[in-house]
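=== Structure Prediction Worksheet ===
Name of assembly: unnamed complex
Input type: mixed (protein and possibly other molecules)
Chain count: two
Listed entries:
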Amino acid sequence: MQFTSEQRLDDGVLEREFALGEIPGILWTPASASAPAPLVLIGHPGGLRKMYPRLVGRARHSAADGFAAATIELPGSGDRPSSVATEQARADLRRALEAGEPVDEEIVDRLVLPLVEKAVPEWQAALDALLSLPEIGGPVGYSGGVISIGIRLAVVEPRISAAVLFAGSFVPRALFEEARQVTIPLHVLLQWDDEGNDRQLALDLFDAFGSKEKTLHANLGGHTGVPQFAGDAAAQFFTRHLK
Amino acid sequence: MQFTSEQRLDDGVLEREFALGEIPGILWTPASASAPAPLVLIGHPGGLRKMYPRLVGRARHSAADGFAAATIELPGSGDRPSSVATEQARADLRRALEAGEPVDEEIVDRLVLPLVEKAVPEWQAALDALLSLPEIGGPVGYSGGVISIGIRLAVVEPRISAAVLFAGSFVPRALFEEARQVTIPLHVLLQWDDEGNDRQLALDLFDAFGSKEKTLHANLGGHTGVPQFAGDAAAQFFTRHLK
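=== Predicted Assembly ===
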């Protein structure tokens, strides 16, 4: 991991861009930390530059609670090379949605499964690098979207102790089955009127998670309309489980 | 309203039992209050004595947040005279549940509608009396079960500004329709594995509420297993809306 730039935000948070091989990422650490900070991995749907305003908002919130926060670019997003197969799957999905047709499971599989297969080891490599920094300790939480990545990480990565998952993307049947193996505490956010989300699938997925502590917070509004108080509640969940 | 007893709890909260005509009730006020306190009405399924340990726990939590809290006995519960028709409906419900049969809407109507018709004006009378006390100001929140009473109160009582509703009892179709007229902010608690609760009905009811701000918090566990953190989140909802 190589740091490529560094700046102090107005609230004192230190923001550093890094490169992990070919993968760009951003690390935020609290203004003042007396001990190594717990870490929140900030998931997103891809496109660091486009997503930056929302990511930095979530990172500042985490830093104010005493957490370091980090994110990396997803395979095929932003400046990273895209794959022909993924682009084809994305086009097929768009066509189905525009035609108002039900989306074939086969399209979802083609779109999401390769992404999960590729992204999860990258998040794990990022975790190796981040946890070797003296200013970052543990435990680690995962927060975010592409819920399928969150599910797989929760199953395969024992260093992740708790997760805030955003319902609101297509979930392959295989990941649905993996959800039953998740045992860490979960806090699931569901936007009740999310135009791109199948509400019943999100409820079924919540039901499927194997965790003994799991909470669903459903709020009105569309995909990007998570209310401030719901963000606060998610932050409190991490404070309960990562401190 | 006549106070019939008074004691200081160990945390300084003043607990006073009262009688509102034939209706017994309990009022809790914070240990120290510089200004008239907002009021939380604490709903419950009936039987003040049996429910006391849970009620006083909720009242202490409210008092710690600076709220007064009050409750009254339900018609037909505790020492209040029961009605033959309600007892018959309750027996019919029990029989259906024990036989594992679906519960007829007609039984739910006979059980719940007369309770709502009678209880809601009593809560309003209690509100008149409580708000005339110098130590209680407003605004007022309703917190609790018999969700049908909460729905009707939210529709007909303009002094109630926000409500925490516990999904988990049978809801007559007529109240389901009234839910669409509710416009105050709502915080709905759903115990995901509540043995006596129809989960799909609770989700449909949440969907029906007309409020622009409504949040559903679903947690694992049975009817009385609301986790501590979920109680804290409900308290924060009142702090946001009643202060």
